[in-house]
Design a protein that fits this description.
Largest sheet: none
Number of helices: 4
Structural class: mainly alpha
Distance between the termini: 23 Å
Shape: elongated
Helix content: over 70%
Radius of gyration: 14 Å
Length: 68
């Protein structure tokens, strides 16, 4: 799902998501490195997570519909 949606986001948005959600860095630290506010980092993370949830649901629904 991550590979499918990654290209839908700007590099900085994806990196803000990745560094906070996957690497566990704080929003303040990530924001400082990306020249974003901590709030903007939270928004970026939220948008990517929402899109990932939608994609995972779609993939699961497709799998359920294609099962015998």
């Amino acid at each position: 799902a991550m590979e499918k949606v990654k290209d839908e986001f700007q590099a900085r948005t994806w990196r803000a998501f990745w560094e906070t959600a996957v690497e566990g860095k704080s929003a303040a630290d990530v924001g400082a490195g990306l020249k974003m506010t901590a709030g903007a980092v939270y928004v970026a993370k939220s948008r990517v997570l929402a899109r990932l949830r939608d994609e995972v649901k779609k993939l699961m629904d497709d799998e359920d519909n294609n099962s015998p």
